[in-house]
């Protein structure tokens, strides 16, 4: 078991190095930050001097190596645009994104699994059929359109909820939270629905199809033949067997919730790291972009690692296989 | 004879399809007494499993009971509400399925599966249920049962899993066990053990058994009486010795001729010409007539008669008479 964990962690590190390399090599194509940093009245000497200061005159492998060694020490460089350390900017912005992602992920999972189970059990009921039809909308509408529609309905027409920003936040330690104020919570509603709707419908459809599959299994028939209650058959026996594939997809989806937050944050002007990244692209702020991509990939890889470990917790068959019983 | 544990009267099952109504079980009647093992034999699709599912109330839609009565210990059970039927399953009727590899939930330890069943049906505490579960595992011959309570199904061999399944079927002490091809998925060497175990436990507890199988060897080994089914109908029903040595229905006769027996040596096996008709294309008259060596105009025009003496046939073979 420990060997398995170590093996997975090592693999994760290799993945991160490769992601970093790919991300870093793409920055050559996004433009020259010098153009934005120096005004119209620049001289060639200015450009060369700044290039030297930023280390952009060095060959690519050297730049990448420097970035990695600094990042390992917690130094993510200094933003070209804001002139402040990137680590500080991200630490200030991250709570907004993480809170948004956590709420959307929670909504997506609770409603996705709940509705998935419901539509599988009441397979032919009108309610289940209605939910399935409506869920097609969630799958097929692009995120930004859902966001704009929600803003139009609840902010513009009804005026119930704010259309942008986080509302009032409270600082706890270095973490600014919107969970503790009424306006902070109200501000969370529309963005988290926007961000989580696609994932919710995806999880729901997956849970439904997996559950229908499991309900046909022999051990479910046998559980019925043993006279167990419907509730026990559905939740104790069927749902648990549904969870293994669902966890895989859900894990990946949680990662993409953080990544997709870029769009939602743009629509709702949510002051998180997604919006930070969009602004950084416009300014070719390479240290910010590099740090953002690395953080996202750390989260992705971390979640996947967790998912792999969860499998083992849920499915006893994997435990013996790992121990080399076969 | 005392009242039978299970009494099936004219049971019919229908499946409505676009092509018309299929009748996988058509007017079947039999009784099973306390402690008796009734073998139900027939080819695939003869309706033997379907009859078992109908009795325990586990027909999957759109199949449904369309006629007849099922009585268990003097109570009619085919008309029960789903909730009452659920309470009866496991408590009054236990079931053993064909494939022990897929009958057990892979994610729950077997001890949990036993105790949940016991707690569902018997008024006992959790500790008592666990003690009963352990006793059940010991009865079916799981070695070191106390240590295996926490084991998962994949940690057992096929034969051991079928023993666990039998323990599960018996754990609430039902009066009837429906064993649906309990040995088909097992190795031949394990089959005999499982049959012997089932037989022994049911004798000891006085449990009636409906043993569904297509294996004549299993029938000969285990059952007291045998019911032969063909195309959803009962072809022959009688004590196992009589039916096997002196079959009266031409179909049973053909079946026996096609079963390898040690006593017959290496003689060439007979085969029944043709194959069992699909349910959607049953012939007029007796369903067996196109394959029957004795069929005549009467057989083609009239459905087989209701059981006369032992066989449902216009021209039963009388013992001693050569065919």
Written account of the structure:
The complex is a heterodimer of chains A (326) and B (323). Chain A is mostly helical and 326 residues long. Chain A is built from 13 helices and two strands, in the order αααααααββαααααα. A two-stranded antiparallel sheet of chain A has the order 1-2. In chain A, strand 1 and strand 2 (175-177) form a beta hairpin. Chain B has a domain at 6-231: Rossmann fold. In chain B, strands 6-7-8-3-9-10 form a six-stranded mixed β-sheet, with helices on both faces. A four-stranded antiparallel β-sheet of chain B has the order 2-1-4-5. The mean pLDDT of chain B is 85. The chains are: A mainly alpha (326), B alpha/beta (323). The interface between A and B is medium-sized, with 23 and 31 residues.
- Overall residue-averaged pLDDT value of chain B: 85
Mean pLDDT of chain A: 82
Contiguous uncertain segments of 5+ residues of chain A = 321-326
Coarse morphology of chain A: globular
Biggest interface, residues from each chain: A-B, 23 and 31 residues
What's the order of the H and E elements of chain A? HHHHHHHEEHHHHHH
Main CATH class of the domain at 89-280 in chain A: Mainly Alpha
Parts with pLDDT < 50 across at least 5 consecutive residues of chain B: none
Write the layout of secondary structure elements.
The complex is a heterodimer of chains A (326) and B (323).
Chain A lengths: L1 H25 L6 H5 L6 H11 L5 H13 L13 H36 L4 H15 L2 H15 L12 E3 L2 E3 L4 H34 L2 H8 L4 H38 L5 H11 L2 H29 L1 H7 L4
Antiparallel strand pairs in A: 1-2
Helix pairs in contact in A: 1-12, 5-6, 5-8, 5-10, 6-8, 7-8, 8-10, 9-10, 10-11, 10-12, 11-12, 12-13
Chain B lengths: L5 E12 L2 E13 L4 E5 L6 H9 L7 E9 L2 E2 L5 H7 L4 E4 L3 H4 L6 H12 L4 H14 L5 H4 L9 H13 L5 E5 L7 H18 L2 E6 L2 H7 L2 E6 L2 E7 H6 L4 H8 L39 H5 L22
Parallel strand pairs in B: 3-8, 3-9, 6-7, 7-8
Antiparallel strand pairs in B: 1-2, 1-4, 4-5, 9-10
